[in-house]
């Protein structure tokens, strides 16, 4: 049987790994309460010049609160090494690996920042929290409050958040998570604040340090009372949302029950978290991450509620402006959000108004875990105005088309595109050509963390990505977004067109942003239609940008470009390849039209497009 690598071998496994909370409650102090005003805050200062942010910041790397700690064997090989570890069950034949050694030191942080700086990153956006603060906060509950090295019970309450319900599984889970969390304890014991050290490392290398705050992280949602991931405020049902889940087949109700920002206690707590990182740390930009998770107020928020949230966000703008006045450096404020602006308005977030009135300097529209291929940056520009900077966000997941490596007997249900420069170039090109001002990388490092054979993140691919002129003429691998399971978050993720069932005679268009290519580079456009394994229509005409439909195709189960060691489609699908002249590709939106010329319905699973060196038809 082929090896199946489940998604919980990835970053989600670490982030959903934690334990029994301390049971303490948090009451905001006088400073926190005063900092979250009940009356409207001062009107923001005049807007910054048009897109002032992107004049200095084009290549942003977003690292979560574990980014330095996922792979200590990479950044501190003199202190750490990988070793096989026992597993509860091993149906795939995969040998688990665990890290041994220590202690973790600040040198690992500096080495990681060195890699980013050497790879052309100009701005590092470090995430300071999940639900609790992961740095040694002096103002709000932290991830290791009450922990003593070796205390296994501290972690037990989070095992259920990973689907573990038996005692043996709990023990093995603790065996994995405790050494990981001890890396943070190493720094605490050495009196090193890793959040402060990150800013120091960035400034040493000329990288602009920004900080990101997750506004409603729910990695501990399956055990609000017992997971040490959770803020104490989450233990109180009256502080949580109740109406965020509307589909019993799509939604885990607990995952839609985050903190309710209509409650003043919630706003006060989060304001204090934000105040601390802005005022007490040496950062110069703030991203509020409303994708982890897209929960703010109860759906159907009234105009009064929307105005209250907008005023609260303006009070954060006042914080950043005050910091900028003290340091003499700009302090941009922005949001990482889904691209569905009206859906955000329904939960209290009026992003267009906050852009128009100068509260926001930048917006980072994204997918939840898989990257977007059809994000309408051109439409977002029309709605958000010319002043605000809009970054294109590249997530690490390509889509839900499963792929395999025959040589390694390895199957993977998501491609980690940080392992394939051709996909990174294509994804960035589609965003930049529609008007994105730069690129933000999100979850890029997950490809390091999952430790799949033959698959690793290619940091050398980061350098030229934000510059469209440097992407033209280089090989690219485009695809379309597809529907999945828990890694899609409706109604916030953009609706996908694939997979789709085409009845006999059906004709269906698909739009994708791409960039035009130089005529002198000897390139071609290869288009692959991926069908369910049993589908064999007598004819499958395909056209690109309204050219005459082509019925000439070549069967192939190979990917157009490999993703590390992944080179083929799985047995569930087969592909048909079509060749077109690259001159048909134009800047902006491009159209693929597929016709079912058979007498039976077919399932169109994916559409893949490659700009690659021209080969002869017989090659």
Key words describing this protein structure:
alpha/beta, disordered N terminus, 2 domains, 15 helices, 619 residues, globular, eight-stranded parallel β-barrel, six-stranded antiparallel sheet, Jelly Rolls
Write down how many β-strands occur, each being a DSSP E stretch of 2 or more residues: 24
Please give the order of strands in the largest beta sheet.
Answer: 2-5-6-7-8-9-10-13
Helix proportion range: 10-25%
N-C termini distance: 32 Å
Total helical elements: 15
- Structural domain count: 2
Which segments are poorly predicted (pLDDT under 50) over 5 or more consecutive residues?
A: 1-48, 88-94
Strand content: 15-25%
CA radius of gyration: 24 Å
What class would the helix/strand composition place it in? alpha/beta
Let me know the largest β-sheet: 8 strands, parallel, barrel
Mean pLDDT: 90
Question: Any overview of this molecule?
Answer:
With 619 residues, this protein is an alpha/beta fold. It folds into 2 domains: 3-86 and 106-366, no CATH class; 500-613, Jelly Rolls (Sandwich). Helices cover 24% and strands 21% of the residues. It is built from 15 helices and 24 strands. It has an 8-stranded parallel beta barrel with strand order 2-5-6-7-8-9-10-13, surrounded by 4 helices. Strand 11 and strand 12 (410-412) form a beta hairpin. Helix 8 runs parallel beside helix 9 (303-327). The longest helix is centred in the middle third of the chain and has 25 residues, at 303-327. It is globular and about 65 Å long.
